[in-house]
Amino acid sequence: MKEIAIVAFSQSDCLARAGAANEVELIMPQLRAVFDQVGLNNAQDVDFVCSGSCDYLQGAAFAFVAGVDALGAVPPIKESHVEMDAAWALYESILKIRMGQAESALIYGFAKASSGELPIVLSQQLDPYYLAPLWVDNVSLAAMQARQLLERGLASERAMAEVVVRARRHALANPHAQLSGDVSVEELLAAETFVAPLRESDCAPVADGAAAMIICTVEKARAWGVPYARITGIDHRIETHNLGMRDLTDSVSTRQAAEAAGMKRGPVQVAELYAPFSHQEIILCRALGLGDETVINPSGGVMAGNLMMASGLARMGEVFRRIASGEIGRGIAHATSGPCLQHNLVAVLESA
Amino acid sequence: MATLAAVVGIGQTHYKTRRGDVSIAGLVREAAVNALDDAGLGWDDIDAVIVGKAPDMFEGVIMPEIYLTDALGCNGKPMMRVHTAGSVGGSTALVAASHVQSGMFRRVLTVTFEKQSESNAMWALSTPQPFSVHLNAGAGGYFAPIIREYMRRSGAPYDVGIKVAVKDRLHGARNPLAHLQLPNITMKEVEESMMLWDPIRFLEACPSSDGACAMVIVAEDLATRSPKPPAWIRGGAMRSEPTMYAGREEVSPQAGRDCAADVYRQAGITNPRKDLDCAEIYVPFSWYEPMWLENLGFAAEGEGWKLTMSGATSLDEGGDIPWNCSGGVLSSNPIGASGMIRFAEAARQVRGDAGAHQVEGARLAMGHAYGGGAQFFAMWVVGADKP
Hints:
The complex is a heterodimer.
Chain A: E1 4-11, H1 23-38, E2 48-52, H2 55-58, H3 63-68, E3 79-82, H4 86-98, E4 104-111, H5 118-123, H6 138-151, H7 157-171, H8 185-189, E5 193-195, E6 198-199, E7 206-207, E8 209-217, H9 218-224, E9 229-238, H10 252-261, E10 270-272, H11 278-288, E11 295-296, E12 306-307, H12 311-324, E13 330-337, E14 343-351
Parallel strand pairs in A: 2-3, 2-4, 7-12, 10-11, 10-13
Antiparallel strand pairs in A: 1-8, 1-9, 4-8, 5-6, 9-14, 13-14
Helix pairs in contact in A: 4-12, 7-11
Chain B: E1 5-12, H1 24-39, E2 48-52, H2 65-68, E3 79-82, H3 88-101, E4 107-115, H4 121-124, H5 138-154, H6 160-172, H7 187-192, E5 195-197, E6 200-201, E7 210-219, H8 220-224, E8 231-240, H9 254-267, H10 272-275, E9 278-280, H11 288-295, H12 304-310, H13 328-331, H14 335-350, E10 364-371, E11 376-383
Parallel strand pairs in B: 2-3, 2-4, 9-10
Antiparallel strand pairs in B: 1-7, 1-8, 4-7, 5-6, 8-11, 10-11
């Protein structure tokens, strides 16, 4: 099977509000950045393009159509789109390369989540007959999950706060972070709960922005002469939508994906996990069996800024950057979708 | 080289204005079970599920695949959701096929649907945007001026669209799953129907349907052992271009021409009218038949309407290149599934399994879908013979 390499990645600053900028304006600087990293002119220089976005965040049908305007798709290009985080656009692109229809691909994800009230918007992602009419928002569902974790003694509010403290400290070195700084557990725990047992600090800030990546065959990466990271494994799994049928304190699908992706075949120096709530990082680490030998979310993770529809791709990008710079040799990146970690993707990245 | 893949199971629902008897989950499951039964397979045999549909606003459910995982037997498996506007049914089939063609999966299930009765597509297509001019016209209002331009350039008589509207409904009357059942439709009836977006009359436009379509796609060795004849995937292609750009050819978009050239090259087709036995082409408004006949190379520029008027695309008139024998989008239009229905109906033809709308001896057929402002294209060619 063809080996795939990541050769370029860029993401925007995580902004609470991107102001008057439209989606094309959010995407274009990231495309320019990844083209420049490889020395390409535009999307005509790759064989395939795939994006991830969500119509409801824009409040209109066909959010991705505007995205095509950012590509310079004249003459026409081979292009596709998933209504998912762009991590799955990466997955589709890998299929395209492995089937021999492309040697390189541009992937991007974008959203302007500030256009709506995200928790309310995401409530309409639930079962339309039984759950959506109740307008149960994603923060409340996550709070329920956190409560189960606490009551079973699998986490403490202090441990959750520690996740946030570490994320914000890591984020000090992340120029795109929306939230960073040195805070203490005590400061965080002194705050009122937001949706109990979650405090506002336990919830990732929502950001407007975009991220882009270029992947290709390893042969092509060598021909381009740029540093790269190999994707040696990638897999994703979904679980039942019925929350009552899941053990919310575990993430079975993350474990399945990690096993299929071959995570355990080598050391995991870095894990970038898409955990939009502090307790979910604890769940993911337990599900993956990650210990002290692994640095969790050295970028600050999505606690430092959550680019809707692009954060999963950005996790891949963060691990790529550390491998391409020679900082580490092997790491994993994770993406999630759906309420309470319903759908999870794990990729294993390794040095050349 | 890609791993060889084939369609071994096809399942559809009845297409209707409103399927009030089932939920969205019930609708997609019906198509999926039909496809599995057709393939002689069960849920446990499936390695991954690929779902497609048009904008989420058509039902008012964000990323409905998240809720549909239980109905589609996905738990513990990979599931993907494709959305490429009206072409999504075709794109989804191609993404599903790529799961197998990449060598990463052996058997996949792909399902597309739309349950338009649960919302209002016209509204969903026309929500105002802060960053662009509000086009409160729906699809028909968008395409009508482009059709007028085709009429002006080609000098086609006014009744070409009427002829297509009748022909596809007569085809649809042979297909028990088709939404519109109009076996006695006449040119006069179409001509007298209300003008919606001049020159598109009511009966020259597609209906709004509930429905789902599913396929099982498997790797070469499994396909040869499948109980019913496989439809071998001989080529697949996608192309996109922006909605607007200086010099854009809207009547015959470059993306459509490029996509067709790509898929013909893969399938070894040099003369589509001669080499193909039939085609299922996305024609939501009648005039798009002559326009696509030219765009896809079945007729020279300006000549597509002559093919239509000669009966070449009609099963009832014994045409040499029947188009949309199932009744096409003009007879059934669950938008997110409409592209996949084209792909699946092409596969039914080469499997010899198309019932009363079978083209006798069909060996090679094309499926086609387009979307957005006629800017997204997905096509495949399937054959009875292994390449």
